[in-house]
């Protein structure tokens, strides 16, 4: 068979959602490149993308379904798919009979593969009728709500247009690590004379490229944005025309800043020197078009919501949201414009229970533990590495004990899979069909099946089709999942006439020639659209949280755990092209912390708090703010054991406030001498 070139899409939870060209020789993936027809990644991939040939054929990939007895013992036995389905289906049926409904069955699915057909997991559970499902988003919910509060909807400017900006201000994002293709557009803007500002507590790879780097105390962006707004107001440097027509709440915002905020307070709270505040103020006023980028890092804190609304307000008053190539970047949720027929699949009605039970995925284990009548008894985990990436892992351990069956579908034996009863091997995106909409750029792309599945791996959709078939064999009518439907049928259903019009295609076949971009204006806020400026009440709320958090605490250091260049969260650690062997965890600390604990580079240390302890090697980072400990996610002994940050804010949904964690540090073994 001759060499084939096939279109794939990188399905990771990553800003790129890159188009891939896969070179397949005799059913084997031999090379991948970026798809030159994809306007965002433009023929390139990141290192993780280029390593896909190794990922797909990695010897550690799960090959067969396996069962572990007892759970957590490591005593795994290979079973057939039919055996796996039979065990799972029998348990589901038994729980249904015991409790009279399927509420004891639940899932935790998140971001391993963001393809639309991966909603098969949700679709499968829907097909059982009322069950236990999740809502929310641990990664982006707080930012999403903040953007919605400001603009009534969720928008984000077109990333390629960033190349036409004259000033780029990045608050709490590190694209040189997390969004490498965006750097191309940033560099292009800079070549044309644009200035780059980075606001981050850490002197990141992106900060290194900036014209102005502002080191800020974590969680204090609201004060910086308001301080700049105050100076602009006092010097009359704001866009009156825009404010009159498009801003709500201006008088209250202006009066509050004039009367209740001093720049001394801003300097004290943010740790940013006056000169830097003045410089950023002058850039924001004197340059157009300016783009403001609200990073996801900002909203991993209780202060994120008001911080983001303050930044939105600042960006708006400079007039940059309503001019071509100005604008605001966050992420968008355009995927929700599609029918999402799997996610929204309607299951059979239950005679007595009208709805499924919903728990917030940002507080999964504790919420799941609190469920009664019936308690949660069966957990299905897909596209998710809870034990590495979630918070409140003590509650997870409790929940694990309560489960009668845990099934994990994954490509690898993750820390979460190790704590399951059954693991099912998932197909990689080269082994299945899918459809992808990014959350950063506006390209729609298809994912073709390039190669046969690795050993006995199956896609999440195939698993849903086969398990529901087995369930109906054993208990007719248990599920109404349309198991006959092929992947292409689901893809076609997503491409309604409206969606095809929006993306300028006539059929899915157009996507086989390359991705298509959504029609979109280069103006962020059209004339008829408005912004609601941050209200004094919300500023007061932000202040209250700030003061509560700033109080002396038994655990003096703030733990920041942002993303790493060569991983996607817990993924790719086993790939030798990207990572060399077993690495000890590197704990970066400030000079100040090193001095007060008498620590030197490479010393072994323990980082701990009331939730747990991990060990690692010290690296002194002279550029870290004095009370910050910086550590990577995932690894053998995941740092998330130390992370349990309750959403004290209110009862509403939020992302997980990972970066509000506090720890202590000591020399290794010190506690035992
Ligand atoms: N290589 C790689 N790329 C990825 C990922 C990955 O794991 N690896 N993950 C993907 C996913 S799921 C996500 S959500 C994105 C996240 O990507 P980003 O939007 O870049 O967000 P984070 O990496 O969480 O944090 C970015 C920066 O915010 C800073 N920060 C923390 N607190 C504050 C604060 O209070 N104020 C300010 N101004 N800055 C603060 C951190 O120091 C960090 O440098 O990356 C995506 N891309
Ligand atoms: N300390 C700390 N923790 C964090 C963060 C932080 O900044 N600090 N960031 C948070 C953020 S932003 C995010 S988005 C979350 C990410 O949380 P998760 O989504 O749990 O993260 P991953 O580690 O990417 O785990 C995804 C799993 O899905 C598997 N997978 C991949 N493809 C498929 C597939 O097709 N089917 C199935 N069934 N499985 C598949 C992968 O092998 C992997 O094990 O982590 C959060 N955790
Ligand atoms: S991980 Fe991100 S940047 Fe890398 S290939 Fe995938 S989508 Fe593109
Ligand atoms: Mo994320």
Automatic annotation (TrEMBL):
Keywords attached to this Swiss-Prot or TrEMBL record, sorted alphabetically, are:
Iron, Iron-sulfur, Metal-binding, Molybdenum, Oxidoreductase
Instruction: Please give the cofactor(s) recorded in the UniProt entry for this protein.
Output: Mo-bis(molybdopterin guanine dinucleotide)
Keyword Iron among UniProt keywords: yes
- Family annotation (CDD domains): MopB_3
Record-linked InterPro entries = Asp_de-COase-like_dom_sf (IPR009010), MoPterin_dinucl-bd_dom (IPR006657), Mopterin_OxRdtase (IPR006656), Mopterin_OxRdtase_4Fe-4S_dom (IPR006963), Mopterin_OxRdtase_prok_CS (IPR006655), Prok_Mopterin_Oxidored (IPR050612)
Please report the stretch or stretches of sequence annotated as the 4Fe-4S Mo/W bis-MGD-type domain: 3-60
> By its UniProt entry, which Pfam families does this protein fall under?
Molybdop_Fe4S4, Molybdopterin, Molydop_binding
Acyltransferase found in the keyword field: no
A GO MF label: metal ion binding
Which Gene3D superfamilies would you find in this protein's record?
2.40.40.20, 3.40.50.740, ADC-like domains (2.20.25.90), Dimethylsulfoxide Reductase, domain 2 (3.40.228.10), Formate dehydrogenase/DMSO reductase (3.30.2070.10)
Instruction: Describe the family membership recorded for this protein in Swiss-Prot or TrEMBL.
Output: Belongs to the prokaryotic molybdopterin-containing oxidoreductase family.
List the PANTHER family hit by this protein, alphabetically: OXIDOREDUCTASE YYAE-RELATED (PTHR43742:SF6), TRIMETHYLAMINE-N-OXIDE REDUCTASE (PTHR43742)
Q: What protein is this chain from?
A: Anaerobic dehydrogenase
Organism placement in taxonomy: Bacteria, Bacillati, Bacillota, Bacilli, Bacillales
């Amino acid at each position: 068979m001759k060499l084939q070139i096939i279109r794939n899409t990188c399905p990771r939870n990553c800003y790129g959602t890159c188009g891939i060209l896969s070179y397949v020789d005799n059913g084997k993936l031999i090379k991948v490149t970026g798809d030159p027809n994809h306007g965002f990644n433009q023929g390139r991939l990141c290192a993780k993308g280029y390593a896909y040939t190794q990922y797909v054929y990695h010897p550690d990939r799960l090959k067969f379904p396996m069962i572990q007895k007892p759970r957590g013992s490591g005593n795994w036995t290979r079973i057939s798919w039919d055996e796996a389905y039979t065990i799972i289906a029998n348990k589901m049926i038994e729980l249904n009979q015991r409790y009279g409904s399927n509420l004891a069955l639940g899932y935790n699915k998140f971001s391993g593969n963001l393809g639309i057909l991966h909603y098969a997991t949700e679709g499968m559970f829907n097909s059982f009728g009322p069950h236990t499902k999740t809502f929310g988003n641990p990664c982006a919910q707080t930012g999403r709500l903040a953007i919605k509060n400001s603009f009534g909807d969720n928008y984000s400017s077109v990333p390629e247009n960033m190349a036409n900006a004259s000033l780029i201000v990045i608050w709490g994002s590190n694209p040189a690590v997390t969004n490498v293709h965006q750097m191309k557009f940033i560099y292009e803007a800079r070549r044309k004379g644009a200035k780059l500002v980075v606001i981050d507590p850490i002197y990141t790879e992106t900060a290194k490229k900036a014209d102005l780097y502002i080191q800020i105390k974590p969680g204090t962006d609201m004060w910086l944005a308001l301080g700049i707004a105050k100076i602009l107001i006092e010097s009359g440097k704001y866009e009156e025309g825009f404010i009159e027509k498009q801003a709500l709440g201006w008088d209250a915002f202006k009066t509050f800043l004039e009367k209740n905020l001093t720049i001394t307070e801003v300097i004290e709270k943010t740790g940013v020197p006056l000169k830097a505040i003045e410089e950023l103020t002058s850039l924001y006023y004197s340059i157009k078009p300016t783009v403001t980028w609200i990073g996801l890092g900002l909203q991993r804190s209780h202060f994120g919501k008001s911080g983001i609304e303050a930044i939105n307000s600042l960006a708006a008053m400079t007039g940059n949201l309503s001019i071509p190539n100005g604008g605001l970047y966050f992420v968008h949720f355009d995927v929700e414009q599609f029918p999402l027929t799997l996610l929204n699949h309607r299951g059979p009605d239950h005679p007595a229970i009208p709805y499924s039970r919903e728990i917030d995925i940002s507080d999964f284990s504790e919420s799941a533990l609190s469920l009664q009548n019936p308690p949660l008894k069966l957990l299905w985990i897909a596209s998710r590495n809870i034990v590495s990436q979630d918070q409140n892992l003590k509650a997870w351990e409790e929940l694990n004990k309560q489960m009668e069956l845990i099934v994990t579908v994954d490509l690898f034996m993750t820390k979460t899979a190790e704590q399951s009863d059954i693991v099912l091997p998932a197909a990689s995106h080269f082994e299945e069909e899918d459809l992808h909409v990014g959350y950063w750029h506006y390209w729609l792309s298809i994912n073709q099946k390039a190669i046969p599945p690795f050993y006995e791996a199956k896609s999440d959709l195939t698993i849903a089709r086969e398990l529901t078939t087995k369930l109906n064999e054993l208990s007719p009518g248990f599920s109404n999942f349309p198991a006959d439907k092929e992947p292409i049928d689901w893809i076609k259903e997503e491409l309604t006439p409206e969606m095809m019009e929006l993306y300028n295609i006539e059929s899915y076949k157009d996507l086989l020639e390359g991705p298509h971009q959504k029609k979109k204006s280069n103006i962020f806020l059209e004339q008829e659209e408005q912004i609601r400026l941050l209200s004094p009440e919300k500023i007061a709320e932000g202040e209250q949280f700030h003061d509560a958090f700033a109080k002396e605490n038994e655990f003096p250091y703030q733990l920041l755990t942002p993303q790493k260049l060569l991983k996607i969260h817990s993924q790719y650690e086993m790939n030798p092209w990207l990572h060399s062997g077993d690495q000890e965890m590197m704990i970066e600390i400030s000079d100040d912390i090193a001095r007060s604990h008498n620590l030197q580079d490479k010393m072994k240390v323990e980082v701990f708090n009331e939730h747990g302890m991990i060990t690692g090697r010290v690296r002194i980072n002279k550029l870290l703010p004095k009370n910050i400990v910086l550590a990577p996610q995932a690894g053998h002994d995941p740092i998330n054991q130390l992370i349990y940050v309750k959403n004290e804010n209110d009862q509403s949904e939020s992302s997980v406030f990972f970066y509000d964690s506090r720890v202590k540090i000591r020399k290794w073994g010190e506690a035992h001498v």
